[in-house]
Design a protein that fits this description.
120 residues, alpha/beta, two-stranded antiparallel sheet, 5 strands
């Protein structure tokens, strides 16, 4: 998960862990990018409004890269409706209240079980 707000990151990791996922949190996309090359996550959850980039734009880049195009990615944001509509071209957009449903669906798609990683 990537969110520059430590309290939001902690909340999202708690939601993921309660749903049976292991969670690795990052406050900057650059730190995540280094990790993606060596330990790609089963699911990636991004905030859109980050100080050194946009989670929505990162989702677009991941979709365009054949090595990450199939990775389940969701953008969890409170962005304005026009930005949310733009992001949905690359990844689903959810609010925090919808995150658990997304993780449950991702677990089913990946074959179930609680041994998945949310990020990292």
């Amino acid at each position: 998960m990537v969110d520059d707000d430590p309290s939001a990151l902690a909340l999202m990791c708690e939601i993921a862990e309660d749903a049976g996922w292991q969670c690795r949190g990052f406050t900057r996309p650059r730190a995540l990018n280094a990790r993606l090359e060596t330990h790609p996550p089963d699911v990636l959850i991004l905030d859109d409004d980050l100080p050194d980039g946009s989670g929505g734009d990162l989702a677009r880049e991941l979709r365009e890269d054949p090595s990450t195009a199939e990775m389940p990615v969701v953008v969890c944001t409170g962005a304005q409706p026009m930005r949310r509509a733009e992001i949905t071209s690359w990844a689903p957009v959810v609010g925090v209240e919808e995150l658990e449903r997304f993780l449950d669906a991702a677990a089913r798609k990946l074959g179930g079980g609680a041994d998945h990683r949310a990020a990292g």
